[in-house]
């Protein structure tokens, strides 16, 4: 999903990650995030796909891979360095890897460049078509496993690409966020292209052009 707070508020870029680390408290106890939480009411094919990818990450790459269930995604790291994470949403499973899309050779259509949307170098693998996946399961999994391996090798050779992950990070509660600027009569058209790019069209009053550009570009 696309959130306009990511355009107008730099602080909002860190909000999702901080929200995960803080956790959600219920009746004085932290809510537990696990496989059941992420797969609840998800289609069987997505649950099976996750199981295969999860098993590969934990048993086929290197001993000591760390899996962490967070509120909005499942993180995979080695020696405190994250090389990928999985997000499961309704009818889709997404994998994000520390790879440069421009360096991939003839990537299939389910692989997209995500670096312009997320911070850092990320490539997205999107699985949202059950029929296509089941018809090409072995080929898709072979490609996916190969990219996971590349992402892992990349962060081990260039550890600065991945931030250190604290075992028990102490995070102060978010008490104040930078206010999001309200723009009157704003119309937005967002188009996701098959080539991995997103086209964003804004229609605003001419009098607010400079203010809007300052917020987006500055």
UniProtKB/TrEMBL annotation:
Organism from which the protein derives: marine sediment metagenome
Protein name per its UniProtKB record: Uncharacterized protein
């Amino acid at each position: 999903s696309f959130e306009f707070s990511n355009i107008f508020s730099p602080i909002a870029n860190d909000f999702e990650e901080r929200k995960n680390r803080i956790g959600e408290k219920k009746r004085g106890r932290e809510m537990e995030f696990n496989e059941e939480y992420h797969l609840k009411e998800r289609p069987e094919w997505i649950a099976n796909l996750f199981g295969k990818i999860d098993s590969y990450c934990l048993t086929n790459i290197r001993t000591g891979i760390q899996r962490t269930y967070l509120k909005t995604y499942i993180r995979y790291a080695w020696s405190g360095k994250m090389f990928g994470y999985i997000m499961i949403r309704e009818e889709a499973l997404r994998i994000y890897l520390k790879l440069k899309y421009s360096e991939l050779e003839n990537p299939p259509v389910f692989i997209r460049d995500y670096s312009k949307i997320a911070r850092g170098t990320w490539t997205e693998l999107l699985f949202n078509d059950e029929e296509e996946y089941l018809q090409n399961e072995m080929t898709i999994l072979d490609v996916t496993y190969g990219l996971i391996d590349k992402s892992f090798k990349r962060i081990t050779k260039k550890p600065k690409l991945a931030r250190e992950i604290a075992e028990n990070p102490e995070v102060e509660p978010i008490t104040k966020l930078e206010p999001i600027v309200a723009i009157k009569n704003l119309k937005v058209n967002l188009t996701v292209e098959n080539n991995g790019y997103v086209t964003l069209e804004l229609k605003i009053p001419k009098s607010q052009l400079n203010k809007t550009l300052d917020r987006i570009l500055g």
